[in-house]
Design a protein that fits this description.
Shape of chain A: globular
Number of strands of chain A: 0
Structural class of chain B: alpha+beta
Helix content of chain B: 40-55%
Number of helices of chain A: 11
Largest sheet of chain A: none
Oligomer: heterodimer
Amino acid sequence: MRTAIWCVAVDPEFARANHCDADHSNAADLATLSDDELAGAAAIGDRAAFDELVVRMTPPLLRYLRRMVADAHVAEDIAQEALLDAWKGLDNFAFRSTFRTWMFSIAHRKCIDYYRRHREFPADEDELAALTAPAPDTERLVEHASLREALMHELELLPPTSRACWWLREVEGLPHADIAGVLRITPTSVRGHLQRSRHRLADRLAPWRPTGGETNA
Amino acid sequence: MPEQTTADDTADSWLIDAARQLDPPDSEIERLISSITAKAGRIFTPARTVPTDSNRIAMSERVIKRLVATRTRSAIGRLVVFAQLAVDDDGAVDGIRVGLVARYRDDLVVLSDEVRAVVADVLSECLGPQTAARAGANIGVRWQDVYSRDWLN
């Protein structure tokens, strides 16, 4: 009778140690490799490649999630869950999108799940978009808030999908088609959300618009 | 290719600059990265097991692939992005296909032989010399273009 024994042949530190070992001067420099190359290697279990992806993806994911959920700790939890899910599911990542887009998709789905569990916004987002945001007391804001604070405030007032479109396009630089994939809406809808968000933010934050000099950042 | 923009598609750069200053502090990011990498190391992923020279030992397919990837990268400096074990009707490994990312001016014939040597060593260590001998005679190596990701012939 065969006795199956799990052979733990890989020390958890094995992969990490190898690529920075001075004896391995021929080793690939992971920092020079693209996200998708690293994802390919991570998909077959290369931990060092995955660790490099974590270093690259954590900042953009966290800043996106910090804009999408109010609680900073929840944003961290979602970013962590998204990356760990990616590690578990890399076998199924078929390169139909870039790794970066795939990661934002996972994170966004987790945001939606979180919204549903906590009912942070109405089920029908159009309902929310139709609501008129309270006009800010512009004079008070200009006097007391920096552009960053005012921008954070205005982003929070945008409907979640518009906020996501604006952030993924303007800050993360994702193409319209990729944003559509992340948010599961059409590229035309992405353009509509973007246009409205740009106009609204530019309008509401006009007092901070630089006039050839510096802003009150 | 960069996405085309139109006059209607432009954003206010001063707003984008301000948005980029909303990054969380570095200390938070570093703490989170440490937490994620530590937890990733503890995730158990089930995988098929394959027989070895010893009836008492079965080897996880995932361990073999992982060793192939890390050993090849550290020894040859090329990234393994594909690894698939071939098994016979009894579930024994009788070959392996490995895909790697090439660099310009690589001598693919020479590098392929080096990859085969590394992979053969891994198979021998994991499966035992007898099982590895059969599998080691059937090591397929394919290369991807570094930019297009297309498989090279």
